[in-house]
Amino acid sequence: MLYLYFDEAYNLQPESENQFLLIGGFATKYPELLIKHFQRIKRYTLPKQWKPKEIKSSNRLFDKKLKRGVIKIFRQFRSHLFIISQDKDTLSYNYFTRHKFNYDKLYLDLLKRLLLYEIMFQGETEITVMLDNFTPQFIPKEDMKKTLQTEFNKICPDMSLEIDFGHSHQVTLLQVADFVCGIFYKIKTQTNTEFSLNDLSIKIIHNML
After folding, report:
1. Residue 75 is part of which domain span?
2. Cβ-contact 44, 165 below 8 angstroms
3. Cα–Cα dist 3/186, whole Å
4. Full DSSP string of 30-94
């Protein structure tokens, strides 16, 4: 079975010239081992008061204490990282409902592009996707799941796809997916590029919609 964990990051500030939505995460066959190693990194690198807490990629402790360890885990387990992003100013009017930006439609379409066309599932029969929870405004989450599963089954009828939403404080590897998003958010916004991603398996898809 293959497990995928995805989170999203975005900059949609009206005054910003670099508005975008980014979905990032990773695939692994060994979720239990990744959790074990991630918890070990937290135990040995974080200050005592932070060990039991969830650390977000926006927290300075991530850059100072956890980033190198998380990247090392991806190298050790040969995890595949996936990033898909779209600049808001390149979108058609289809992504605006009553002159309001339809975040849900863009999120769903980016996921469809990623799951249906960008990730190779050869040799797999069962795929489990865990998405970080959020509150949609236009498309209910159950409808998103149904759409993804229906279209996936048309393309990959011999595979089963399970999709669920979870909270990062309950699903440890969603915290790691947040780190993937955070790393590439900082690259895209040029707020932090002082680290190496050499030797990692990374697929980056940009402005394909």
Report:
1. 2-206
2. no
3. 25
4. -HHHHHHHHHHHHHHHS-GGGTTS---TTSHHIIIIIHHHHHHHHHHHTPEEEEEEEEGGG--GG
Can you tell me which residue has the tokens 């850059």?
A: 63
* Largest distance between two CA atoms of the chain: 51
Q: What is the mean pLDDT of residues 100-104?
A: 95
Q: Determine the pLDDT at residue 132.
A: 98
Sheet containing 126-132: give its strands across: 160-166, 126-132, 2-11, 20-28, 80-87, 201-206
Residue reference for tokens 């990773």:
26
Q: How many domains does the chain have?
A: 1
The whole-number pLDDT of residue 191 equals: 66
Q: How far apart are CA 142 and CA 165, in angstroms?
A: 10
Q: Is the pLDDT higher at 84 or at 191?
A: 84
Closest CA to 27 of 9, 48, 2: 2
Residue from 166, 157, 158, 155 nearest 129 by CA: 166
CATH number of the domain bearing residue 104: 3.30.420.10
15-29, 49-63, 94-108, 192-206: segment of lowest average pLDDT: 192-206
